[in-house]
Design goal:
two-stranded antiparallel ribbon; 3-stranded antiparallel β-sheet; 1 helix; 21% strand; single chain; alpha+beta; 187 residues
Length: 187
């Protein structure tokens, strides 16, 4: 009888251990949410054994790090890589759309330079050019004389400052009086 009690106790002990193992296994089983590794370049799954599995997404799958200025993001070997500044290289000709500005929380980033940034609109008839903050270069101030009526009209197509020949003007000589513009001079 003592042997039978010992065997029963041993059997009860084995059953308790088995239940503890089963309970522990059930408590450690994953859920889809608990498997998320936070990597946008992996597909996270909870397998049938309750273990988390992480599989790399195919190369060039889009991912997003929440930043605009480090460029488009693509998965490469399970890592989100950045393709670089999305804005063109700076020059006076493209100054108004070559400055990277992060948006709020990585959204609505832009390449537009701040209002007042120096630029060149490529036009002869503007001297002082500034960005408008929306990506455009706005030219101001004519390079032509404000005091010489024969050199005050800017002609973009000719890239010159002249009044039409024959326009009346006042000569600089006191006694000469009224003259006629010719090649930018009053005579």
């Amino acid at each position: 009888m003592e042997k039978s009690i010992r065997n029963s106790n041993f059997l009860i002990f084995i059953l308790i251990l088995a239940n503890l193992a089963l309970l522990t296994h059930c408590q450690t089983q994953c859920t889809q949410q608990s498997c998320d590794d936070g990597n946008p370049c992996t597909t996270d799954l909870c397998d049938s054994f309750g273990a988390c599995r992480h599989f790399q997404k195919p190369p060039n799958t889009s991912c997003d790090d929440g930043l605009f200025c480090n460029g488009e993001d693509k998965c490469q070997a399970g890592v989100c890589v950045h393709l670089g500044n999305p804005c063109p290289a700076y020059s006076l000709a493209n100054a108004c759309f070559s400055t990277c500005v992060e948006g709020i929380n990585g959204k609505n980033g832009t390449c537009n330079a701040p209002n007042g940034t120096r630029c060149d609109d490529g036009k002869f008839c503007t001297r002082t050019d500034f960005c408008d903050g929306l990506g455009a270069c706005i030219g101001r101030d004519s390079p032509c004389s404000r005091t010489n009526p024969c050199n005050s009209t800017c002609t973009e197509s000719l890239k010159s400052c002249n009044a039409p020949t024959g326009k009346t003007c006042t000569t600089s000589k006191f006694c000469d009086g009224t003259g006629i513009c010719n090649a930018g001079k009053c005579s």
